[in-house]
Amino acid sequence: MRMDRKPHLTKKPADVKCQRVDDSMVPGLEDEATEVEHLLVEPQSEHVSVDGVFCFGKESIEKHFKTEDFSCAFDFGWKIGCGGLDSIHGRGGDDLKLEVLDGLLDEVDEVDDIHAAHDLSSACDDFLFDIKFPEKFSELDHVPHDISNLHNSSSESHSPGFSGSISVEGISESSFVIVQESNYKNSVLGEMVNYDLHHTFGSKCSCPDPVMETGRHSIEQDQGFVDSDDEKPLVSFILSNKKVKSSVEVRKGSTHLRQKRLRKPTRRYIEELSRNSIAGKKCLKVEPQEDFPQVPESQPRRGRPRKIVPKLEFESDCELSASESEEEERKRTKTSRTACDRRKHQRMWTLAEVIKLVEGIAHYGVGRWTDIKKLLFASSSYRTPVDLRDKWRNLLRSSSAHEQNMGELQVEANTKHNARMLPKTVVCRIRELATIHPYPKVRNLNFHLLIPTFHPNN
DNA sequence: GTTAGGG
DNA sequence: CCCTAAC
Length: 458
Hints:
62% helix, Detected protein of confused Function, Myb_dom, 458 residues, SANT/Myb, mainly alpha, 3 domains
């Protein structure tokens, strides 16, 4: 394998970029993978070309680090380097390789489109931007807690060194092999890099998350969350980018969770939608990025009721355009959201995001949401610290439910309640972190502290 | 400005 | 996801 690929290496690294665009995608990918493999095999001689290919600036101090990070990225992203390494060490990587290549060929079409559609330089920039936080991550990378709960389905088949990056953090439910801490960290880094590669390349590589890929036999088929986790966010991403009005239709069918918010596109909604399509051009300033702005405001909210709801006159006032009326209502309710409405549309949490969140909590503990956001979710502007906290809250809830249900052997009911299951390992880690960093209940404590002041003795 | 808690 | 109160 290695020798076969050697001749390809004569191609200059600087050509890789061009090949990705000019050539058909399959050879381009092969060459790319070859480069990666080469990097893996002879890292000391390839540092320069890594920088050249990916436009890394000279400001990088730890090139060695970068090379490793890249190996992570490519191992996860395209997996071919993985096969190469495995074959080098002569330990059953062939099966994996074949699977990977099959998957790769399946992905070629989509990847090709993406590459063609993207300006490569900008993609590079994005890549650079995204690649930074894993470095930072590794700088403060001491994971204070026991991470040995993470299991590796195939750790024995990998060599040390790069193997950490290759051995995707285990999802296998069958074999529980303890992963060394360093390996795990590498895997997380690589995974995050890969996650951002998804973003950089349009998040449509259709290559599933690395975790899922390794655990494909166990997770994808058994629990079937891949579709709901990875595809739906993509759909919403694409739709929101295109500002397709009809996104409602797509979103409606996406998950059960969303149905709560999006159900009942009532007649009034349809009316307002049509009105908005006319008036929206006048009032572009208001909510330029709203896909379907009217629903949440004009319909009874799911959450806490607004303080003032004088809706009758509003409803009868058909002269107002939708956006105008919305603004009117805002004035009335005096909630006065900022000019650019902060309300976002739901964006499904991908498994990679969840893992990033979990890792962030492992580093910072619970409560430092802004730190976690700045460090790990810097590139995803749609995740606010509050979102992270909410997600963690939900994760705690679902993981505890998972625990209980497992005790009662009610897996079926479990999947029913938690429509979007998490891999067992992630759930384990969440529970582990939950014990280490208990979710704060400060106010209750204060409340209890206040009670004793009411001593009957005094 | 950030976080906790409730919806 | 959104809102509000508390810090």
